[in-house]
Amino acid sequence: MASKKVVVLQSNYLPWKGYFDLISKADLFIFYDDVQFTKNDWRNRNKIKTPRGAEWISIPCGTDLKQLINEVTITKHDWQHDHWNRIRMNYSKASYFNLYKAFFEDFYLNAKWTNLSQLNQHLIVFIAKKILGITTELENSLSYHPTGVRMERLLDVLRKAGATEYISGPSARSYIAEDAFLRENIKLTWMDYSHYPEYRQQFPPFVHDVSIIDLLFNEGPDAIRYLHSTNLTQH
Fold it and tell me: Residue 100 sits in which domain range?
């Protein structure tokens, strides 16, 4: 049986570089948006670099928490102009802002996004494939019709995807049962985000945990060189 590294992860809004590093390390990346939406999380917000430090930009998603990520609707659209204005204001002098300006300007000003999952996935797929040149296959968990709850549901997706290895972010250590992966004969590998190189960044001091657009606008085609952390821990 051929090896197949799989990542299963919720979509985030303009994720940081570690998210795209995780995508690049997999053979298959599965968006896991048919799970519970969590408020004040990365699903609908991220950080950009400003002269005042890293600041949040957030998509208003209402107060209904009893819904899945792919059910979250966006009814207000003023945020789109606001986000673009803040991005343009803080990154217009970055070396490669103009290289990507057309795509982001069109995204924010020429469409009315009504579904959070679709919005996030559109951005992630375009950035991964068209800008960073990542060749990983990207799919949606809905196509696997997963059954079960929590860990069993995740394992069901991995079984159906033919995974031989599962790469997980470190925050999942608190709830992932490693012995369950052993029983399924799926190797569990933990991502370590601690050794990324610094790049040219406006408004020092340097910070890592900001949106991927910070790296893109500052390093352009060289962004992929700063994307990779070589640290993976296997079990």
Answer: 5-234
pLDDT for residue 164? 96
pLDDT tens per residue across span 65-118: 789 999 999 988 999 999 999 999 999 999 999 999 999 999 999 999 999 999
Long-range contacts of 134-138 (CB under 8 A, 24+ apart): 134/20, 134/23, 134/24, 136/23, 136/24, 136/26, 136/27, 136/28, 136/29, 137/27, 137/28, 137/29, 138/23, 138/28, 138/29, 138/30, 138/31
Q: What are phi and psi of 209, to 5 degrees?
A: -85, 60
Whole-number pLDDT of residue 62: 81
H/E run at residue 50: strand 45-50
Smallest Cα–Cα separation from 115: which of 82, 79, 81, 71? 71
pLDDT at residue 114 in the model: 96
What pLDDT, on a 0 to 100 scale, did the predictor assign at position 24? 96
Instruction: Give residue for tokens 């601690």.
Output: 194
Count of CA atoms in the C-beta half-sphere (13 A) of 211 = 28
| Alpha-carbon gap, residue 138 to 32, rounded angstroms | 11
The burial class, CB within 10 Å (0-12 / 13-18 / 19+), for 22 is buried
Q: What is the DSSP letter of 63?
A: S
C-alpha to C-alpha distance for 224 and 210, rounded to whole angstroms: 16
The tally of domains found in the chain comes to 1
pLDDT reported for residue 81: 98
The CB density around residue 221, as the number of other CB atoms within 10 Å, is: 12
Spans in the chain with pLDDT lower than 70: 1, 229-235
